[in-house]
Prior knowledge:
Layout: H1 6-15, E1 39-42, E2 48-51, H2 53-62, E3 66-68, H3 75-79, E4 92-95, H4 99-111, E5 116-119, E6 135-138, E7 145-148, E8 153-157, H5 162-170, E9 174-175, H6 186-192, H7 199-202, E10 209-215, E11 221-225, H8 230-236, E12 245-252, E13 254-255, E14 259-268, H9 272-282, E15 290-297, E16 305-312, H10 316-327, E17 334-335, E18 338-341, H11 342-345, E19 358-366, H12 371-383, E20 388-393, E21 415-423, H13 429-443, H14 459-466, H15 470-480
Parallel strand pairs: 4-6, 5-6
Antiparallel strand pairs: 1-2, 3-4, 7-8, 8-12, 9-13, 10-11, 10-12, 14-16, 14-17, 14-18, 15-16, 15-20, 19-21, 20-21
Bound molecules: flavin-adenine dinucleotide.
Amino acid sequence: MNRRLFCRSAVAAGVAAALPVQHALGSVFHALAKVTSNVPAIKLSGNETVLQAAAVNELADSLKGQLLLRGDAGYDQARTIWNAMHDRHPALIVRAADTQDVSNAVNFARDNELLLAVKGGGHSFPGKSVCEGGMMIDLEGMKTVRIDKDKRRAQVEGGALLYDLDKASLDQGLVTTAGVVSHTGVGGLTLGGGFGRLNRKYGLTIDNLVSARMVTADGQVRRVSAEEDPDLFWGIRGGGGNFGVATEFEFDLHPTERKMLGGAILWPASVARDVLEFYAEYSTALSDEMYVAPFMIAPPDTEGLVGMDVLYCGDPFRGEKDLAALRSFGQPIEDGITMVDYLAYQTQFDGDLAPGQRNYIKNGMVKEFSPGLIDAMIEGFALDPTTELFFHTAGGAVAQVGDTETAFPHRQAVTMIGMGSTWTDPAEDKQRIGELKRRWALIEPNTGGFYTNLREETASRTEQNFGPNYDRLVALKNSYDPMNLFRLNANVKPTA
Ligand SMILES: Cc1cc2nc3c(=O)[nH]c(=O)nc-3n(C[C@H](O)[C@H](O)[C@H](O)COP(=O)(O)OP(=O)(O)OC[C@H]3O[C@@H](n4cnc5c(N)ncnc54)[C@H](O)[C@@H]3O)c2cc1C
């Protein structure tokens, strides 16, 4: 992650009230003019087709939300996703207002064999939530979060963002695991797994999922849980958007204090080896309440920094004790660990990772924070410090679930390592991506598999990555989506 402003933001997080994420879409839908000419579109096969105007109008009339075509007000905003590398123009955009709209859109796409993209929060690094020439189902109008304080449950619509979930939960003194940038979508994050600063205590986001409402490729609306459609429930916990559109998620919530011990601690990159070797040992004995995730960055005018993103979600006095060894290691140039407002802390990277920039990323799962990994991190940093290295520390509750209990297969990894680059000038694309790939080639041999949500891969790598779960995912795909309507994801190819 881009942590250029980490220290300043981390300190600010302790005192500032969280700013609400701007929801660009107005909540009021209104009817657009009738379509008067046929609409050219792209099919799942890649072939061109022409949709009859009457059929398109019939779809539009069936919606509580809107159908947008090129040139319509709101079309460009709806097709725009977080990563500016992916500038695509769907033939049709259904801005769904409810589950029935989603079902109508899925039926239309299936019947016309249209290439189909589903946009939750639109934060797919490889741009899976937008397509060229097909249909996009945009869930941005479905963001409602309802909290049942007594049952400690959240009902979250499929287009909600992490901020929506964190804010509504924390307002009731409750919380669940969510990622570290608040404008990320709950939809894509959950379906792929869901790492966050609370995952060692409460598990991945999918470990807190109680049920989901899914629209499958046949247009049917299904409630999916451990009791209803348990196979599909298994598949959506890590299998991504392969099996349909999730229009609502139900999560378990946990009582929490809003103030937690957290912040960043930084050392100069010149002592990175010592710090990382210390961390390799220190991190083997973390309590489940403790999240300590290393990163390496090179803000302008520095020789580079190695740091730790820290959050302790238990009793702060205990946390202080557990952190003493880390904080007194070597000579940190900044120690920003203090009592922070968790909601604000969850927004501290929002600005650096704001939508509209160009991004490229790789990641891998790490079973051991080994000397080889440390060597590769340091060697790569010397090669090119502009690429940022970050970790999502796992273990704890994440590892309490077996590799095959959910479709997410990397339970025994102690951490996930990511390498990301963010820039704005398209002229830099080739150089940035090339540099990142060169550095990643050093790191990758120290990883085993990857997190599908932060990487794009080929079909064979995807199959390998799902490992022992792949055959079961294929069987599910054969049952629920034999034509592979939902293919813009970490795709499991049906064989039926
Ligand atoms: C800035 C940033 C920070 C991140 N931080 C974290 C982090 O801390 N932890 C972590 O685990 N991951 C993190 N991620 C990765 C994140 O989990 C994925 O990018 C995720 O896919 C984003 O979900 P989305 O709904 O915003 O994406 P989208 O682009 O909308 O969708 C991504 C994929 O999910 C599918 N999808 C989305 N919503 C639905 C739905 N409701 N039903 C069916 N399919 C759906 C889409 O079709 C697409 O295949 C981060 C990503 C970014 C860009």
